[in-house]
Amino acid sequence: MADKEHFAQGLSIGIIMDGNGRWAKQRGLPRTAGHKRGAEVFQDITRYCNELGVESVFFYAFSTENWKRPFEEVSAIMKLFGEYLHKAFDYQKENNRVVFMGDRTALEPRYQSLMDEIEGKTQNNTGMTLNIAVNYGGRPEIVRAARLLAEKVQRGEMSPEQIDEAALSAAMYTRGQKDPDFILRPSGEKRLSNFMLWQAAYSEMVEMDVLWPDFTRHDLDLAIEEFNRRSRRFGGL
After folding, report:
1. pLDDT digits (tens, 9 = 90+) for 22-61
2. What's the Rg (C-alpha) of the chain?
3. Catalytic positions
4. Is a pLDDT exceeding 90 seen at residue 92?
5. Measured between alpha carbons, how far is 39 from 54 in angstroms, rounded to an integer?
6. Cα 93 from Cα 83, distance rounded (Å)
7. Are 202 and 179 in contact (CB under 8 A)?
8. How far apart are CA 94 and CA 100, in angstroms?
């Protein structure tokens, strides 16, 4: 392995936390047990990314499509999310800036208030940026950005000719942040599942055949090593 102190320095990583339900099923447990274990892994990997000097990490926690799951499972996921929101205030000493991606208006008002408070209290932190995608979809994010720019044109704040890639990027939930260097998907699946479609245009894909509740710090090391072996040409030679 390259120098452990620097091999992840400055990286931006997207993570699709996948496989919680399958992990539980393999063990004869309810799917909710998989989500509980997955939440514990999320917290550990967040701390590890911070220790490694990762610049930003984007966790796909709950998609716009996940509402179609059974009521009991959705309720359990939202309960875990609420518990994390309360714990997040204990992480202030880690100096992370927290950003929530997605349409939060569908969430309980108390969760929306906590999200606003956490973002406000961490906005000036200078460490890693921790992005959590909740009720998020890549296509809805692009539609939202297009509408924001259309409204600016309507108000006379910009002309249609001023709408370019930079303007659209600035209208995304991830405005001001570096696009992910790679998207990590555990569980053996090989698709983006509507995650960061705009930002992932030139991201490397790293798939791993390990379910998220079994994911370890060593697995993240392996994923970063795999990315560091890639040759990124961005369309050139």
Report:
1. 999 999 999 999 999 999 999 999 999 999 999 999 999 9
2. 18
3. 18, 66
4. no
5. 20
6. 18
7. yes
8. 17
Average pLDDT, the chain: 93
- Token look-up 């967040």 returns 46
Domain borders along the chain are 12-137+180-229
CATH 3.40.1180.10 fits 12-137+180-229, yes or no: yes
What is the identity of the amino acid at 231?
A: S
Helix, strand, coil percent values for the chain (each to nearest 5): 50, 15, 35
Reported as a single tens digit per residue, the pLDDT across 103-158 is 999 999 999 999 999 999 999 999 999 999 999 999 999 999 999 999 999 999 99
User: Do 227 and 9 form a contact (C-beta atoms < 8 A)?
Assistant: no
Query: What is the pTM (predicted TM-score) of this model?
Result: 0.93
Q: Which helix or strand (DSSP H or E) is residue 13 part of?
A: strand 12-16
Residue 98's beta-bridge partner residues? 130
Look up residue 199 and give its amino acid: Q
pLDDT at 2 over 60: no
Residues in the chain: 237
- What DSSP assignment string belongs to 67-83? GGS-HHHHHHHHHHHHH
For the chain, how far is it from start to end, CA to CA, in angstroms?
27
20: number of Cβ within 10 Å: 24
CB hemisphere CA count around 29 (13 angstroms): 15
CA atoms of 17 and 60, how far apart (whole Å): 6
CB atoms within 10 A of CB 119: 13
Stretch (H or E) spanning 84: helix 71-87
